[in-house]
Design a protein that fits this description.
The complex is a heterodimer. Helix content of chain A is 33%, strand content 22%. By secondary structure, chain A is an alpha/beta fold. A six-stranded mixed beta sheet of chain A has the order 7-8-9-4-10-11, sandwiched between helices. In chain B, strands 1, 2, 3, 4, 5, 6, 7, 8, 9, 10, 11 and 12 form a twelve-stranded mixed beta sheet that branches. Classes of the chains: A alpha/beta, B alpha+beta. At the A-B interface, helix 3 and helix 4 of A face helix 1, helix 10, helix 11 and helix 13 of B. The complex binds adenosine-5'-triphosphate (ATP) and magnesium ion.
Chain lengths: 290, 404
């Protein structure tokens, strides 16, 4: 968390920048020759394989860097390995082979205790299926990560309420998951993911179950978070959602087949930037939140 | 991670499924309560036996007619016990270790007082020495005297149960009751001996002078028992030998293996019965222990179901950064809370239940059984809860989340 922050951006921003030169900002995620296989023998499924090694003909694994402050959309057909990749990035699953460095630390060398710390402090995970704790109020739900971080009750409540109001749910703090609509549940999940102010937000089809209006609301929140410097990795099937990202990866059968940059790593994500320009042109607030 | 937070998570988990938690606790409750109660009942019956040993007087011996163990059972040679036998035993030169002798006849008849009719457990005719030998103390009025015996007066001393049955709360002393048509004046009421062992009530008795009872009911030919008091508890063995010696003389017997009477030491009989009740206590305890174990298995089962059912939730919690120790703590606290609450309530129910008579036995709670069963229940909760809890905490987040 200490590595995040605007100081770094203001430090790097003045340096001349090319849109395709990701070497300048430090990569927060580095994966090297990562593979994930399920099953054994002939039945083996390589959920992540990368290109085949020209010499051995075996999967060489996926290698990828994601910069701090970037907003990456991962696309691909069903079964192409998107969720598999995301679960490994979120330290929820372990790769079959290869290395995953988070903030320069090899996650494979961390023990159970350190992994739970990483999940708690560095990563905010938003699941496709919300994954709220049943029979627990929205407020308690959002307080959970703080409770596991050992934050005191009063402070926890304050921060959880702040996170809920950020997603526009302060009126629904006492509601249990079964008393919330799908979009509201997803926004609770977003609030829960961002309440610890993690440097990295991982979202597995956060809008998959939502109508276009709720999708727009959730994306606005995510855009705003990215604009404040958080790294976002998001899985989606929809081009409208992918439009919000600064970089789009496409996976097919566990391989990255295309990697397109849609906007600079530094600065607000494209859609938000366009809105800001629009407002500036209309003579409204100059500068906005950035 | 703060301790209180874990407790709060655990309470939340229990509250989420109140019926199930309550039923699991009920299992432990029944286990603990039955351990306490059944052991108390067993203990109560052996306490009762012990009390009746001391209430009998440890230096009393009973002579009854009939062949002793291993002796001849031929009825032709059997001579009944008589008052003459008792008189022979009372001779201090022949039997120096005997302090007093009381021949006893027993019969049964219906007693009538006013319009109340009641049949006492037994009607005894004897000498005043009986009271001391049998450790019967007077509560109201007085014993009948040797003079009453000599003059065959129609007086009687009654036990407390008989007194309650016939007179309810009235004072029986001085009242006249009719026993099988013969009027008897009640001169005294005995103290409650208690120690009823379920088969006979020592307080349900009417005691009258020997010749009076013989005259009215049994006739003068024989007595049913002779109660003998040795000079002290240490001389009962010698007294027993002297009784055998004297009665062999009066019954003209030569072979000590073929006696037509039996001398029994009441205390030793009751000691044998006490060991029976101890076996009984152990058996009851074993049954109770099994029910406690079943309660423990209930906890394991419920925790396994809970863990399985909440595997997704565990996955979510781990994905949010819950350390293994906290998940372990939450589920272990849940199972421990179940067992502590269940055992606590079980102790309450057990202690409460011990206030009531169970099949005629007043339960006497053994303090160590309370502590022991509570501790065992809690240990079972911890031990059996730790397996499912550990299983839950060791899951990889993604495996838990994928769980259906
Ligand atoms: N636990 C598992 N055991 C066996 N195979 C698995 C497992 N999880 C995923 N797979 C396989 O790995 C491949 C990639 O799965 P993944 O969930 O990453 O797909 P996805 O790109 O997220 O698809 P979708 O868009 O439908 O969510 C699939 O072929 C799937 O069958
Ligand atoms: Mg998926």
């Amino acid at each position: 968390m200490a590595r995040r922050g605007r100081a770094r951006h203001s430090g790097t921003a003045p340096t001349p920048e090319t849109e395709t030169g990701p070497a300048t900002p430090t990569p927060v995620i580095q994966i090297r020759r990562l593979t994930k296989a399920y099953g054994h023998g002939d039945a083996t499924v390589h959920a992540l394989r990368g290109p085949d090694d020209p010499e051995t003909g075996l999967p060489a694994g996926v290698s990828l860097d994601i910069d701090e402050g970037d907003f990456v959309a991962v696309m691909g057909s069903s079964g192409s390995g998107k969720s598999t990749l995301m679960n490994i990035l979120g330290c929820l699953d372990v790769p079959t082979a290869g290395r995953y460095l988070l903030d320069g630390i090899d996650v494979g060398h961390l023990d159970e205790q350190q992994l739970s710390l990483v999940r708690n402090r560095k990563i905010g995970f938003i699941f496709q299926s919300f994954n709220l704790v049943p029979r627990t109020s929205a407020l308690a739900q959002v307080e959970l990560p703080l409770a596991y971080a050992g934050v005191r009750a009063a402070e926890r409540r304050k921060r959880a309420l702040a996170a809920l109001s950020l997603v526009g749910l302060s009126q629904r703090a006492g509601h249990k998951p079964n008393e919330l609509s799908g979009g509201q549940q997803q926004r609770v999940a977003v609030a829960r993911a961002l309440v610890t102010a993690p440097a990295m937000l991982l979202a597995d089809e956060p809008t998959g179950n939502l109508d276009s209006h709720s999708t727009e609301e959730v994306l606005q929140i995510i855009d705003g978070l990215n604009a404040t410097g958080r790294t976002v990795v998001l899985i989606t099937h929809e081009d409208e959602v992918a439009m919000h990202a600064k970089r789009v990866l496409r996976l097919v059968d566990g391989k990255v087949i295309s990697d397109v940059r849609q906007g600079p790593v530094v600065g607000p994500p494209p859609v938000l930037a366009a809105q800001l320009r629009q407002r500036a042109a209309n003579g409204e607030l100059i500068g906005g939140r950035q | 991670m703060i301790f209180w937070q874990i407790i709060r998570f655990a309470l939340g988990g229990l509250a989420a499924n109140k019926v199930r938690s309550a039923l699991t606790m009920l299992g432990v409750l029944i286990g603990v309560a039955s351990v306490i109660l059944l052991l108390a009942v067993g203990n109560g019956s052996s306490v009762a036996v012990k009390n009746s040993i001391t209430s009998l007087g440890t230096n009393s011996l009973t002579v009854s007619s009939g062949a002793s163990f291993g002796g001849s059972r031929s009825a032709a040679t059997t001579k009944k016990l008589t008052v003459a036998d008792a008189k022979a035993l009372a001779d201090p030169t022949a039997a120096p270790d005997i302090k007093s002798v009381a021949p006893v006849v027993s019969t049964s008849a219906t007693a009538i007082y006013g319009d109340i009719s009641y049949t006492p457990g037994s009607i005894l005719g004897t000498y005043p020495a009986y009271f001391e030998t049998a450790n019967e103390k007077i509560a109201k009025g007085d014993y009948f005297s040797a003079d009453d015996v000599l003059n065959s007066r129609k007086v009687a001393v009654i036990g407390s149960t008989t007194a309650t049955q016939l007179f309810n709360t009235d004072d029986p002393v001085g009242k006249t009751i009719s026993l099988g048509g013969t009027p008897f004046t009640v001169v005294g009421v005995l103290q409650t001996k208690g120690g009823s062992t379920g088969f006979s009530d020592p307080d349900d008795v009417v005691i009258a002078p020997l010749p009076t009872v013989q005259n009215a009911f049994t006739g003068f030919s024989s007595v049913s028992q002779i109660l003998v008091q040795a000079t002290s508890a240490d001389t009962t063995t010698q007294a027993q030998a002297e009784i055998t010696q004297v009665l062999m003389g009066t019954h003209s017997l030569t072979d000590p293996t073929k006696l037509d009477f039996r001398v029994s030491n009441q205390a030793s009989l009751l000691t044998a019965r006490e060991s029976t009740t101890q076996t009984f206590t152990v058996l009851l305890g074993a049954v109770a222990a099994i029910s406690l174990l079943v309660g423990g298995i209930g906890i394991t089962n419920i925790m396994l179901v809970t863990v399985t059912e909440r595997t997704r939730e565990i996955g979510i919690r781990k994905a949010l950064g819950a350390p293994k120790a906290v998940i372990l703590g939450q589920f272990l606290t849940e199972s421990t809370l179940l067992s502590v609450l269940g055992a606590g309530l079980g102790v309450g129910v057990g202690l409460f239940g011990a206030h009531f008579k169970v099949v005629g036995i007043v339960p006497v709670v053994i303090p160590s059984s309370v502590l022991g069963s509570f501790a065992i229940a809690v240990a079972i909760g911890l031990f059996f809860g730790s397996y499912p809890a550990n299983r839950a905490a060791s899951l990889r987040p993604i495996d838990a989340l994928r769980h259906e």
